[in-house]
Amino acid sequence: MPLPHAAAMIDQQAAACGELGSPLYEFLLRRAALDVAAGGPCAAAIAGYEQAPGPDAIALRLLGGVHALVLTGRAPALAAYYPSAGGEFTLPVPEAAWTAFLATVAEHLDWVRTWLTRPPQTNETGRANLLIAGLLHLLADAPHPVRLFELGASAGLNLLADRFRCEWSGGAHGPADSPVRLTDAWRREPVFRSDRPLPALEFTERRGCDLTPIDPLSPEGALALRAYVWADRPERAARLDGALALAAKHSAPVERLGAAEFLRRVSVAEGTLTVVWHSVMRQYVPADEWALVETELTRLADAATPTAPFAHIAFEPNRVAGSDQRRFVLTVRTGTAPEQVLAEAVPHGLPAWAWSERPGLPVG
Known about the structure:
single chain, disordered C terminus
């Protein structure tokens, strides 16, 4: 992949960071794209990894490696501009921030290059807002204990979603003392029935899978998770800290397995709702592997009964039919019934809004 194309991918991620509320990362990636095109230190950092899938694969891995240096005290000049490390952040971003970023990449080139081999696993707890909403929607008329299985679970933090607190104007769900607070969860009314008492989430089993699981209780694992949170988004860092505190108290095992192999070990069970869910992971799964996943999901759906139900909940980017646009949407499917599109949200999950608020935009 020529450097100009790699630079364009990084610039594309810069635009996404700006749209999602990270002016610091937008600024740094704009400059990094120019440096890559010019063959500078950032080009040396990504050399050999230019063909990693998607614009975020290069850009977010580069940012994650540098952020890890900041968080561990090895880039003090850059830390002065990173709120995550106690730095002062102002707009417009001072040119000195870019100078410090480039110097950090050049000085720690081998370290940064090792991060180009890592998938950008944020394990974003904000996305649990949509997963919880899908589950509450399903349980409203047919409450059941839940057996939860997550694909691409990373560190397993969203397997603890029953211990998160969702809050929106006029309502809330989850433990009031939860260290993970998903505030401003909905722009208007949530997609589940909030005009009556909401069912408590009761998980009788929770397990996940990931090809490269992260141990949230290890210093290395916690650093990786924190490094992939954008440095000027303190609310995301606070949610992560809360989820790590929960993980220290509650087990949520994640097996080192592919999604299809993991699902082959799952079956429906009497008296419980068996749920498979995932969020923003499908794009990283090869098409042939996902075909096997679909086979297993169909098997579970066909095996479901009224007393042993099955549901598939997903928060994933979907292409809008007849368009190049992608929407991050919540879909649910119960048994062999057709898939429903319930809601849409920003990629990190907060806020969300009902899909009915976007009439005429069917997903393809």
